[in-house]
Amino acid sequence: MSLRFRQLQAFHAVIETGTVTAAAGQLGISQPGLSNLLGQLEREVRFSLFDRKRGRLVPTTEAEVLFREVDTVVRGLDHVAQAVSDLQNKQAGQLQVACQHSMSFDFLPRVIARFSQSRPDLAISFQSQYSTKIQEWVAAGLFEIGICEMPLLHDGFVVRRLHFETRIALPEGNPLAQYDELTPELLEGQPFIMMGSEHMTHRRLREAFQNSGVPLRPRVHSHLFRNLLSFVKEGMGVALLDPFAMEFDNSGGFVSRSFRPRILMDMAIITSSARPLSSVGAEFVETLLREIEPYLVAAPSKGRDGTQA
């Protein structure tokens, strides 16, 4: 098998943009040229990459698996190209940050914007992604700083652990808003909007209800805290959310209350122990820790899966 990077780049661009037209524009080549690259790649891998449905290219199951591997390669070369460009242009520095989703929508862009005000020549690379991918990127040197959820799946990180208290989001007008603090007993019968079964908040919420002898009533499962909050605002149930999903949402339609037993989100700022942190990166980490400090709580006691009375 003789795979060429340009073929992988074309494949990556089509999945990211959704169309051959957009992908060709992104890569600066003609549509026939891009289609030719895809055809070459399909002949090399010997399976179909896309099905055409209603005029759109839909990745096959095999293509989705391949994309996860190709994504790291393509982004890695993009970072190399950016580094070369920075050196050629003698830029003052580059900030490379990858963050899990809940902090990425409002909180972290504000921190980065304030940080960059006194650094007008700073080049910024920012990406939101799932925590497992962030760890891969930092380990591979594609990003210098990662903010991710625990657990850590790789060795070789300098780790700054973070713990945040979750809260219950209720639809506006829910009678339970009369309470300052909610418990499994008070929430009995309420439909829950929940993260997937492998997420720490799902496991810890289920444990809290089991320990209280109260049945938990899941109604909707989703993969982002922001999605959970949207379902809450639509009146479909209540949700256990980290503070960043609610703190910067000014659209209304919900209220939040404390939950007992306390359930924490365990997160970390990670950098590579194999590569020294740049001066810009070190300054940003210190800034980020100061900005996060008001949201932090003490680490959970040992022997419990993140719940505290």
UniProtKB/TrEMBL annotation:
Q: Which InterPro entries match?
A: LysR_HTH_N, LysR_subst-bd, WH-like_DNA-bd_sf, WH_DNA-bd_sf
Say if the entry is tagged with keyword Phosphoprotein. no
Which intervals hold domain HTH lysR-type?
3-60
**Which PROSITE patterns does its entry note?**
HTH_LYSR (PS50931)
Key words of the record: DNA-binding, Transcription, Transcription regulation
Which family does this protein fall into? Belongs to the LysR transcriptional regulatory family.
Record protein name field: LysR family transcriptional regulator
